[in-house]
Description:
There is one protein chain. This protein is of the alpha+beta class. The protein has 3 domains: 26-107, Phosphorylase Kinase, domain 1; 112-270, Transferase(Phosphotransferase) domain 1 (Transferase(Phosphotransferase), domain 1), CATH 1.10.510.10; 333-455, Nuclear Transport Factor 2, Chain: A (Roll), CATH 3.10.450.240. Helices cover 34% and strands 18% of the residues. It contains 13 helices and 15 strands. It has a 5-stranded antiparallel sheet with strand order 1-2-3-5-4, with helices on both faces. Keywords: ATP-binding, Kinase, Membrane, Nucleotide-binding, Repeat, Serine/threonine-protein kinase, Transferase, Transmembrane, Transmembrane helix. GO terms for molecular function: ATP binding; protein serine/threonine kinase activity. Residues 1-266 form the Protein kinase domain.
Amino acid sequence: xxxxxxxxxxxxxxxxxxxxxxxxxxxxxxxxxxxxxxxxxxxxxxxxxxxxxxxxxxxxxxxxxxxxxxxxxxxxxxxxxxxxxxxxxxxxxxxxxxxxxxxxxxxxxxxxxxxxxxxxxxxxxxxxxxxxxxxxxxxxxxxxxxxxxxxxxxxxxxxxxxxxxxxxxxxxxxxxxxxxxxxxxxxxxxxxxxxxxxxxxxxxxxxxxxxxxxxxxxxxxxxxxxxxxxxxxxxxxxxxxxxxxxxxxxxxxxxxxxxxxxxxxxxxxxxxxxxxxxxxxxxxxxxxxxxxxxxxxxxxxxxxxxxxxxxxxxxxxxxxxxxxxxxxxxxxxxxxxxxxxxxxxxxxxxxxxxxxxxxxxxxxxxxxxxxxxxxxxxxxxxxxxxxxxxxxxxxxxxxxxxxxxxxxxxxxxxxxxxxxxxxxxxxxxxxxxxxxxxxxxxxxxxxxxxxxxxxx
Length: 456
């Protein structure tokens, strides 16, 4: 049983996380001023490592962060001192900032972070995605080959320079803290950073930067970067080498000044905290969150709750297709999608080319990919049993322009996809394949009869 504490008491986690800005006290400021630094305004930041834009004794613009002497940030900063790469923020020196503090000095870069660019709703074009993948993954590979990890890859920590190139910043994540929750790999929920974790986070950033339509080749690459098992993920160097598959690289466009200001305001309004503690260290926090949630739930039951309509709160259940359902234009497209998924499962297990061909529109991307899959299964003498794909949580979305013009009347639906555990037999040897984690995909299909043309 947890001992009750007052709200003003800090949560004890075993890791000292200073209050944001607490280390930038008068003593630290005066110590740096005596060394010739002019201290400027803050640039955001959390957990004590609040960066400030300053001028050094030579009049150069720099960024300074304060940390306690001997903590993880200083140790990592000292390891970064000899590191020099055009795609990585430079740590140029470490100065004393009082008897128990040090100042980590980095070179100031005139740039816009990727989060601000994406906040306006603009998706990167394939050539821009190629640039992002190539340059960010190359920078990560350089870090990893020097036995360093970033630990907090997110759009807010990727700068886009005036020439459209990218640079990674904010490399001083403490080992016991995690990066931005949305981009944290599954294993990272329990603490620690790794090269494989950096690759996973970059894969999530790429998917987000692509917007509603993710190019099929990028989907393939990010699926390799975001495998649940870290040991199965490709390396940063391999990911960078595959950037050419997305097309010729193009500079990332930053937009006009007025648009960037508006985007920055949006980004600040929705940005998640960029540092948090692992689950194992949040038990006390969760106890009090549970109490709050219980009170809210009790109120909701008592007075009733109104929730806006959305795809995942659809009050009408999706009809269930019978095994003999005819997938004509009158069939609910959600029913058609589940029926097509079931038919595809059967085709894979039975190695039935005709049944597989009936799932997709002839000549479409899906038709080509599925035909290639069947050829590989047969060539390797692979037999799969127990495969069951389930689709739910449907939401109608816009059809990408290039598909709408090619397939007039096409529909696009985003759905959660869950696949069962299976048994894979190859050349007489069988092994169990675990069920995949649920994921969301978008399906584009045409009617009369319903057939798939694209999945991303």
